[in-house]
């Protein structure tokens, strides 16, 4: 199994009508928009690219998001990170 492969998304319905979506992957890098400034800017995907738009959608439509890189793991690759975002609810 590839340690950098993303796990299946986890969905949680929160009390005020928000939906939280979370994923875990084995790579230690926290990508934009989940990082702290100045690493919170998502570059646009090239028009002919087949992927690379998911993080742009999070930055555009999510109300809140976050991520946390977790320390060192085997082979100094890092222990990975959880990433999450929320949409909807009374304020969304």
Strand residue content: 25-35%
Specify Rg, calculated over alpha carbons.
14 Å
Binned, the helix content reads: under 10%
Number of helices: 1
Structural class by SSE content: mainly beta
Distance between the termini: 37 Å
Shape: globular
- Give, in spatial order, the strands making up the sheet with the most strands: 1-2-4-3
Biggest sheet architecture? 4 strands, antiparallel
Give the integer mean of the pLDDT values. Answer: 77
**Helix-strand pattern:** EEHEE
Number of strands: 4
Low-confidence stretches: none
Structural description of this entry:
This protein is mainly beta and 92 residues long. The protein has one helix spanning 54-61, and strands at 10-13, 18-25, 64-67, 81-88. It has a four-stranded antiparallel beta sheet, covered by helices on one side. It starts with 9 loop residues before the first strand and ends with a strand.
Helix and strand arrangement:
Layout: E1 10-13, E2 18-25, H1 54-61, E3 64-67, E4 81-88
Antiparallel strand pairs: 1-2, 2-4, 3-4
